[in-house]
Amino acid sequence: MKFASEFRDPKAAKGLLAEIARVAGQIGATREKPVHIMEICGGHTHSIFRYGLDKLIHEGVEFIHGPGCPVCVLPRARVDECIQIAEKPGVIFTTFGDAMRVPGTKKSLLQAKADGADIRMVYSPLDALELARRNPTREVVFFGLGFETTTPSTALAIQQAAREGLTNFSVFCNHITVPEPIKALLDDPHMCLDGFIGPGHVSMVIGIHPYDFIARDYGKPLVVAGFEPTDLLQSVLMVLTQVAEGRAEIENQYARVVPEHGNKVSLAAIADVYERRPSFEWRGLGEIDASGLRIRPHYAAFDAEEKFGVGYAGMRTEVEEVEGCACGAVMTGRMKPVQCPQFGKGCTPEMPLGALMVSSEGACAAYWQYGGARAAAE
Fold first, then answer.
1. Structure confidence by residue, pLDDT tens digits, 346-361
2. Domain carrying residue 222
3. pTM of the predicted protein model
């Protein structure tokens, strides 16, 4: 790819939209409901609204927003545990900016920082590693958060800390995986999905074959997609074509970035540092088997759960969602953000009730930023 403009060409987009309309119309002649396509990744959700694809696409296609925002699916209890660690004496707690304003049961990390906790925003776990080098008498904790996209960088940081013997560095591991929640959604009898737009950045790490079960066991197509408007339109067309032809395959529209078998260096680092948890709690989805990662015993010195006795290594409490907040329903495609009774009223970017309104990949944030504020007023 030489220029992003190649993937934002209006003429190409119009051609794709016309072909989508043709195929969607063909499918619509044999069914009453639109074709429901779930974009798993929150980055895709924002691209859809940024470029107005939801308004331009044929009425026979409906986008369903999936649980592809790792900040959004984090239960409030895990935010509480972050604050519990951060407020311990001598701790420097580091995190990506997305997680700073996510509310826990009593406050967010940003509010805990205002209350005096040493909480710092970083752009990489290597930034946290450098803080550990510069502050040998302090415990530096990195909030390991994200799907397979960010998992390798945290693993490499742990490996580097082990080589240097930086035992004042640890990771509060909340890394999660994409295929397992997709299976949970497909097993839900209330979900009516015809196909998926697969996550591009995650697939850059894991490749396309971890999704094979979607086509093989459930008969649903999935197309791994890029993030530009013509990427998404072409991917929608590829899904529709499979539906029209009665096929179910895993296809790779984003082949310029995503290798078939993933990134071998990243996968090796993940395998070395992490193992599967028996289960992990997802906001809106509950406990999902083998959907989370934990640090292997031979790296236990860098595991904040073990070091501080929190999370799954300590005493955990169930935390109810905020009354009237529909984050779970939005993330699982049962409800559009503007249908949430709190959207634009009790929940705004300035005073969020849920993570979907503050995360850069949250569906509610996308709706608000690209016209949802007006919709809420109406």
1. 788 777 777 778 777 7
2. 4-61+183-252
3. 0.89
